[in-house]
Amino acid sequence: MLPAALLLTASVSPAGAVVTIGSNLARVPNSAANYSPRPTFSNVSLAPNRQASGGLSSPVNGTVVLWRIRVGDSTRVTNLRIIRPLDRGMFTGAGTSASVTPPTGATSSYAVHLPIQIGEYIGLDCCDPGIFEPDAEFFVTGNAAVRDEWQPRLVDGGAGRPPLRTNGYEIALNAEIDPTSSFTLNGVTRNQRRGTATITVSVPNPGELSGSGRDVSAASISKKVRAPGRVRLLIKAKGRKRRTLNSTGKVRVVPEITYTPTGGTGNTRAVTLKLIKR
Question: Are 172 and 29 in contact (CB under 8 A)?
């Protein structure tokens, strides 16, 4: 709960920007797989010129909102898997999409809503053998990739398991992540001698935190947020609010606090804050 002197008055959380991880899907899959029981596959290394702009593991905490797969000449039932690294080289599943059968010779997109954390990977569950069906061409050969495999497939929240690691297979898969932009106002500390206040804000991702408003200025101790955690903003009155503070010893200001996660869209909150000067 916020202190009485720090009241949330408005919240705006626009959507739009996303971070894309995985393959850039620039190459046509030319390698098939046929496994039983069904494994999970993930790229843990891929040449930079083959990667999506966000890399292979998620650089942000957020939600996977879309995934894409490029298919060669044959296909099978598959699904997206979120993969969480654990200690000592172990991994577990952390989310699964609905199963689909993507069409051959095309890049297909599928909407999804799966939480993902910083450092987690994406992967595919595939490729069960079928009667009189070809193998699934979801992979691109070459020496620029390292592929992890777990057979049978990973289980969400299951015990950690080490992968079988092989070289030479890029998975034609990527995903779009909407970075979490919601932030928490933890509290306020006043400097009554100077008539200022410091707001402590908890943010979920790297990014930028700033403040502004009519008759108020905000100076951040660290505007560039390098990691999730707490950041402080120093709030000062200016103009007529400053004159009121100097004459009466107290004034209410309404700074707008804006947090923009790296690769995401800004979220702005206006708060009512009481400044005291004695």
Answer: yes
Using CA atoms, how far apart are residues 5 and 25, in angstroms rounded to an integer?
51
Determine the residue type at 242. R
DSSP-derived 3-state class of residue 177: strand
N-terminal to C-terminal alpha carbon distance within the chain: 27
* Other CB atoms within 10 A of residue 225 CB: 23
**Residue 1: what pLDDT?**
38
Sign of the CA dihedral with 74 first, then 76, 80, and 83 last: negative
- How confident is the model at residue 222, as a pLDDT? 47
> Which tokens belong to 266?
């800004």
d(CA 2, CA 167): 52
Tell me if 205 sits within 8 A of 262, measured CB to CB: yes
Phi, psi of 98 (to 5 degrees): -65, 155
Q: pLDDT by residue (tens digit) across 171-221?
A: 999 999 999 999 999 999 999 999 999 999 999 999 999 888 877 766 554
What percent helix, strand, coil does the chain show, rounded to 5?
5, 55, 40
Rounded-to-integer distance, Cα 138 and Cα 198, Å: 53
Contact 5, 273 (CB under 8 A): yes
Query: How far, in Å, CA of 234 to CA of 217, rounded?
Result: 8
**What average pLDDT does this structure show over 249-269?**
91
